[in-house]
Amino acid sequence: MVFNQDFAIKKTPNKWFWSAVFLISLGGLSFLGLNPVLIGDWWWLLASYNVLMSCVAIYYIVCAVSKLKKDNKNGVVGTQFTWSFVKIIPLLVIAPVLSFYLFSFQTIQDNVERSKHTYNNFNKVFLDQV
Q1: Cβ(99)–Cβ(120) below 8 Å
Q2: In angstroms, what CA-CA distances link 65 with 25, 97, 117?
Q3: Contact at 8 Å (CB) between 105 and 33?
Q4: Nearest to 106 by CA among 53, 56, 39, 42
Q5: How confident is residue 122, by pLDDT bands cut at 50, 70 and 90?
Q6: I need a labelling partner for 119 at 20 to 30 A (CA). Which of 15, 43, 63, 75 fits?
Q7: Number of other CB atoms surrounding residue 100 within 10 Å
Q8: How far apart are CA 43 and CA 29, in angstroms?
Q9: pTM score > 0.90 for this model?
Q10: How many CB atoms lie within 10 A of CB 49?
Q11: CA distance 12 to 18
């Protein structure tokens, strides 16, 4: 008889946990992008949060992939298809999400600069008229 006792920490968190992790990261990115003064002082907080959550995600991914490989060796039905699907996930999900994340940061900075320019022009025109 084989006893398969996986630790509770190997159970993956649910979808709401990962959604919250992404939204917190995106919210922090937006907040820092809207306040350029804070980028110089608090960039490390967002970077360390993203690194920490990436390490947590990598741990769960490694646990899931090792379990999938073990099940594939044992001949569990469906693991071969799942393994072939897992191989294309980085191209389908990770690259677009990362590019969206970096594009959002640049867009926020561009919008802040554009609004500063517009505000300065408005002030200049207003002061000239007064």
Answers
A1: no
A2: 25, 21, 50
A3: yes
A4: 39
A5: confident
A6: 43
A7: 11
A8: 9
A9: no
A10: 14
A11: 10
What are the structure tokens assigned to 107, written together?
């867009």
19: closest CA among 97, 91, 96?
97
The rounded distance, in Å, linking the Cα atoms of 30 and 35 is 9
For residues 10 and 63, the answer to whether their CB atoms sit within 8 Å is yes
The answer for residues whose C-beta is within 8 angstroms of residue 24's C-beta and 6 or more apart is 49
| 94, 20 contact by CB (below 8 A) | no
Both tokens of 62, joined, read 């490694």
pLDDT for 34: 81
Per-residue pLDDT of 43-66, as tens digits, reads: 888 889 999 999 999 998 888 888
